[in-house]
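Morning F.,

Quick status update on the modeling queue. The single chain you submitted on Monday has been processed. Sequence for confirmation:
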Amino acid sequence: MAAERLSRQEQRERNRLALLEAAERVFAERGVQGASLDEVAAEAGLTKGAVYSNFDGKEDLLLEVMRHRLGQEAKAQADRLLHSGRDAGELAAEFGRYWVERVHAGDQDTFAQMSVELMVHATRNPAVREQLVALMFPSVERDRHPLAAPGSGLAELPYEQADAILKSLDVGMRLLALLAPDRCPPELFPVALRLLAAPKGDD
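Structure tokens below.
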């Protein structure tokens, strides 16, 4: 009996992940307003009932996609960068290379598109905005951003402000790299990061 319950839980988790991945693709392609939960269910090979057994509706599903993806990204960054014990300059250089690799891999294109769709939607919906802001800007007990080298312009800012600037750079350049890769190639990101994060006076 316990094995059967575990099997049902595993199936539920598989269905949930399939719906999250399908939602990312569908909402990236059709937009928040243009896509339906029926389309998400069909893309995942499941029924609409499976959507409602896992999520409260379209906006809850979108927010869960963000929570899932941001959680994965935060863990990857922490594992690769923030727990490495290296100084801020080395971390910024490594993060710049990591960012370029991810963009060239193309595995975040749909997430970037869906994220922008959800951000625009959230500006018109206060309840969604509140939840999305909480996801994107979690409380962190730090005085200085780990990518801001001592003596840099970023290091002069509180963590929250430096984090907002770096997130703006991330989101903006991901979108422009999709829109006009010839004008905004991914390789510009580490250049911008170096200019922001390096100590003043460095070349």
